[in-house]
Batch of 2 targets.
Target 1
Amino acid sequence: MILAVGLPYAALLAFFVGIGYRVLSWSRAPVPFRIPTTCGQQKSLPWIKASWLENPYTTAGAVARVASEVLVFRSLLRNHRPERLGSRLVYSPSGWLWLGALAFHWSFLIVLLRHLRLFLQPTPRWVLALQSLDGFFQAGMPVVYATDAILLVALLYLLGRRLAQAQLRYLSLPSDYFALGLLLALAGSGILMRYFARVNIVEIKRYALGLATMSPALPSDAGALFYFHVATLSLLLAWFPFSKLMHMGGSFLSPTRNLANNSRMKRHVNPWNPAVELHTYEQFEDEFRDKMRTAGIPLEKQ
Amino acid sequence: MAWPKPDELVQIDNTPPSGSWLEPSANYRKGAYCNSALPKSLDQVGMPNARNWKPSDADWKLPPDWKEIVLEGMRDRLERFRSFRLFMDICVRCGACADKCHFYIGSGDPKNMPVLRAELIRSVYRRYFTAAGKILGKLAGARDLTEDVLKEWFYYFYQCTECRRCSVFCPFGIDTAEITMIVRELLNLVGCNIHWVQEPVANCYRVGNHLGIQPHGFKDSIDFAVDEIEEMIGVRVEAPINKKGAEVLFVVPSADYFGSPHYYTLLGYLMLFHEVGLDYTFSAYASEGGNFGLFTSNEMMKRLNAKMYSEARRLGVKWILGGECGHMWRVVNQYMDTMNGPADFLQPPVSPVTGTAFDNARSTKMVHICEFTADLIRHGKLKLDPARNAHWNVTYHDSCNPARAMGMLEEPRYIIRNVCDRFHEMPENTIREQTFCCGSGSGIGTDENFEMRMRGGFPRANAVKYVKEKFGVNLLSCICAIDKATLPTLLEYWVPGVEVAGVHELLGNALVMSGEKERTTDLRGQPFAPQTEQAGA
């Protein structure tokens, strides 16, 4: 009961409170300066084509830019690798990281959304539609979801590259492997239950609905694998706000991406704009007056 | 001085060392760091812990409570800068930035990967500002702030030129320049700063420009340029200083009037303004466009930048025009109006020659010379003879700040295409928003830092070498004073035979002035290519 009910609730609480705390701490800190990284032509003369997306000058452009980052990982798509051949550097496009990251995130999202069928009664049409689309490429019993396979392959790729590349291995922290390990355990146990060690889905839906409606009831014949799945998910949820997995919020809030490059058109205000000591023109002229007069430079005081 | 030869330096080993990066390391060897600031430069602007010390010393003579000062400084900045807080939290260490840094490409030192450069302070952030780091320590990638860590910061955050190339590739837009700026602020709190930044800061604050050229010396330089133009071209131009009631205040990086090849760009400006009859003035008080405060702290940036608006107000001009300078334009585009505005005593800039309203500068009221000139050319206001640049085969180096902190990519290219016949772009991964830094920006372009500069500039030089060999390029044009000061050394080292010039030098060569005498040489005094004479230009 503690494992199956207490843990998910506690994890969810930690998840939402933690995220709330984190987002609040970010949004409480002001954005003193308008510092977009400009990745395209600025808006200047009317006959020069400005890049509204890569160097947005309107709020709509900045929103679109953030969307391009969040939805298709725009910046990661620029990735390339420099290689040194003797004394010459050559650059080759390198889309694997982009592909691996995109594959992981999108398939993970779809897998999560598919799980809604367990928490909602009746199962909404769009969830069913998503489910049949996901299983489109495969006939047979049970239907093999494309996202299950993609999720697993993408995670293994992300782990593999971290282990295989010396530089990445050098910079990686235990927490980087922990995140990948947790996700692999979560996805792996789910896949096992769906395709190999089948569980009673009716009982699990009863349990999930119970959690969702705040009237928890244990599934009658769920095995250790199921509880392992629930436990890894709970751990992931609870750890999420305190880890780098919070990068999600960062992509929305990053001042190098979510601001329009319009600080010459419209003044950006810094709430803590400090008063600073200045060396005034008067002080300057007082020091150099004689020399300026001799040189014939106009003066305020003769 | 026996610096390593290019064929030695290019043997770059990318194998990371054994052991953990959490162990601080900073190898203060000759050629790989900048000299420390002199006490008098710090005293002049009221910066703390002025003393004599060297980065290679064992004892840095830090204040006794240096650790508290730095940690308190971090806490304060975490509250004031969302960028800082976010960039400490959201990195996933995906490594997309790793091989995008010119210092990493040129040195192979893993702590020059932007992700690890940032981790050098992130690890300290985790230790003192996050629960996981406080409890789990090293396991969570956290480490204590020690004197060795501080020395490591100084080493690697003065091996970042704040060029922002990594932030183009980061999926979350994490900008190492922002992190470097904040770490340098922290280092400044305990008096760890470099001579090549702090002396220009002190000079600029009191005298008005980086070299500390006093007003009469400034006037001499400008007058000399006026005389030289008359001698070369036969036209007497005017270059007023502190002229009240002029329409435009013109601010240039001071290197334009004391550096070479900057000086030829200055000649280009003066000729251009005469030709279109611009009513403008220089200022002796604001005789510096550059702002090494940007490499010190945001407060220092504000103190130095304030002179532009204050002088514009005193002289009663309508708007401000700015010369070819890289980081000056980062300050103007992203900081000036916020820090020292609103400039409601000025008017939205309008070109008196073409009537074009520079709507993109309507609040800041400051226009880039390339915007101004591109507009003139577009309206057919200039008579240009590109054949006068026929001896040059030109490429264009996007300077980091105009490219990635502004997005000024097309304006200079438009000018170049109108004043030169032979123009070739470097490979696409090395220009525009992906441009490579000269390796000497953000105040580390000093002689004693030679090896790191050559390493950092290696990718840029390599792309120049490519167009030199493929198209016969012999001139690299750019719009940044630090580029003009440091790229000649870099190119001489890696690609001998390619010169460096400002865009307005090329314009000055091509500009046909009314009343000019027959011209046989460019602004450097080099004879025009033979075909020019045949064309009878």
Target 2
Amino acid sequence: MKISEDMVKGIILEVLQQMKPSSPGPDRPTQAAPLQLREIGPAVVGKDKNEVVIGIPPAFGNTMTQTIIHIPHQEVLREVLAGIEEEGLKARIVRVNKTADVGFIGHEAAKLSGSGIGIGIISRGTSVIHQRDLAPLQNLELFSQSPLVELSTFRAMGKNAAKYAKGENPTPVPVRNDPMARPKYQGLAALLHNKETLLVNRDQPTVELAMA
Amino acid sequence: MALIAGVDIGNNTTEVALAEIDGQGAVRFCGQSLVRTIGIKGTMRNVSGIIDALNQALAPLKIPRRDLAMVLLNEATPVIGDVAMETITETVITESAMIGHNPTTPGGMGLATGTTINLDALSEADSAQDFIVLVDAATDFQVAAEMINAATARGVRVRGAIVQLDDGVLIHNRLSQPIPIVDEVRHIERVPMRMPAAIEVAPVGKTIEKLSNPYDIATLFGLSPEETRNIVPIARALTGVRSAVVIKTPQGDIQERRIPAGHLTLIGAEATVEVPVDQGAAAIMDKVDQVAPLREIKAEAGTNVGGMFETVRQVMADLTNQPVSDILVQDIIAVDTLVPQQVLGNLAGEFALGNAVGLAAMVQTQKLPMQMLARKLEEEIQVKVAVSGVEAEMAINGALTTPGTKAPLAILDLGGGSTDASLINEAGQIRSIHLAGAGDMVTMLIDKELGLDDLDLAERIKFYPLAKVETLFHLRHEDGSVQFFDAPMDPRLFGRVVVMGEGGPQPIPLEDTLGRIAEVRRKAKEKVFVQNGLRALSRVAPAGNIRLIEFVALVGGSSLDFEIPTMLADELMEYGVVTGRANIRGSQGPRNAVATGLVLTSPLAREQSYGR
């Protein structure tokens, strides 16, 4: 059966509706504005030792605009960038078109980074801090449970990535672990994953982005 | 031909030496082993460890245990030790007089003075005054920067900022006019409003210069000589930080306060003196020397040290089935140390190093139930077991098998719980002493000074050198040398300071630099082992003069350490003493001294002398 984008959207909205009463926390708008990102050409390997590269999948800020717990992608990027800036480093953003896997996206970003440190963030919020010498499925820090990745986690993620790039010895960002996150969000996460992979195109190269 | 085994039960390890002795009494060593001691030294629980050690020594020879002619146990010295720490100073800030802390990334740089003001109040502020603006966690960095820019545009003179979150650089990067910003001030709500304040941020790699100098603070706030005297502790507390805030409040003050830690009562053979623990290690050790030889020590109840004394006494009493009142403290050692402590009344979660005194004590009783242990062992293995020889004498007999030694010789036994020294003169007379404080105390000092709260890790930091993992393919050792790897290391090690243990590098979960961790480790070893080495040797030396000792051999577990033998050798060089790690039987290193000594002095052996 061919799943159309509209179908997925419909299912997600339905699931979200059903989840509403049981899910506590602040009532956020279900739709956030798309990210104003502009493609400025194929991504190249950086030469600056003082940069961290952030990799995002095709759907990020595009067909999907918020994480699984409704943090707008706009704010996600802003916080990660702020964390990197506070440590005195520079950031580049690239869109990895060939995969929607967080590990591979993070690894691709790390390989493009002059410091060798990259961050991979996928649309539902799952994230990784990566280093270019690692295998794709290894990581420096992994934020595997997307429902537990909060706004403050993104700031801390940027900060720690910058510290690794500086050769410092940061304490890993504390990650909460909630055994209920899996049963509660698994269905939704699967749907979001389907939506994420729709735009993946193996033949399309990774492109460099600029904030419009 | 008789096969006999010498067994040395130590605090941490049980060691065995196996030897064949022929009809003429010639000794031929044929095996040894080392296992962890099970239970406390000298108790029934040791038996299983001993059997294990015997089996391990016999296994390569393929000889069954029943073929042993005799097992010899040492007369274990009935001493046990323990360690405790008493913090004796703390820093107290009243009325939020200062913030001096080290956020890793403050914003801007330079010195600024002004009146403290809330960000919201900035819109109504007049332009005749200088201001230091406070930004709380609820305000976004972008908004804060815009508000400060707007105020500056209206002519309000914003000279500096104090920020609650880690936003210093972010705000600074968005300002039209650069100002110094101190961030990560956790309790910003405690900063008083409308008070004169000064703020200083040093460039990267430097420390503040003005606010750490009392006269500069006096200049900034126009203080009288009296007031200047009062701000000296503030200036001192701000020395060595990269950013600081000082606020002039009517009663603002910072003090270093002494915490009452009780008294120690030292009872010697001739005199009894009292010494307050908060006077520090030097004062305590002075008094210990004054009353030597020590008979008994009493500590105040309700203090850490009092608690420690009670515990060791109780353990010893339980061990020997004697009343607690019969257990006497034999020796103590005190060392000064610094422990990180949260500053009371702090604004930014600052830590200050508080003074603390670490104490190790050793208690003594008449006799451990060694005979009972021997009988139990005999029952279990059906081999004759005898208790023979005092530990210190056996150790020295074993040590004399080190090539290149002869009597007179002194040995320093650097163990886990105690530092022991013995000396043998040409006539074969042996003097020995047991002192409190050894490897376990070093571990405690490392643990407390680094604030680890993990004794296992502290133990490893003590035992192995450090390194810094610079990339996944290479690490830099403590001495600066670089080691490369073909395969990438575990990502958890990336960028970390690691301990180079046997199982490979292990990360240390601290943000301290390699240099500081190594410094703490070295200092701890020096404080305990160098001080105790000198103390122990001077007690056994002829006329108490270490210069009259020619040779010192180091034995025991802690002499396997990678730097303690060098530290002691350097120190003892000044006394003209040859110091080195023993090499028992020319093959065992500093291990197995007592077990070897037991075999050599057994009734069957001809060589009752001291080896060759």
